[in-house]
Amino acid sequence: MEKDNDGDNHTRDYFVSALRLLFSGPKVDLQLQESVTTWLDSVEQFLQLLISRRDLPDGEEYQDDRVVSTLRLLNFLRSVGGRDTMCEWNIFLFLVFKGREN
Known about the structure:
This protein has 4 helices and no strands. It is an all-alpha fold. It has 2 domains: 1-55; 59-102, no CATH class. α2 (30-54) packs antiparallel against α3. The longest helix has 25 residues, at 30-54.
């Protein structure tokens, strides 16, 4: 699992750094650079949250960690204005916990 995580981190780093480089030249509008930088910061944070959530081990003893990780994702989505996605996640979580009767 560690090896997959390293590969994902390298891919994420490459993706984000390649886009940063693409939009950092002197011919790129400064306002566009600032917007892209903000967007890439968000993409990088979102990918890290997803990878962290995915890499949690299976098992009942990690259920609390999975809930906390999911809540971090929801808070992130709320902070970037992803209300539709956040609502879908809330409905999904409700149905999961309702099915488990938690």
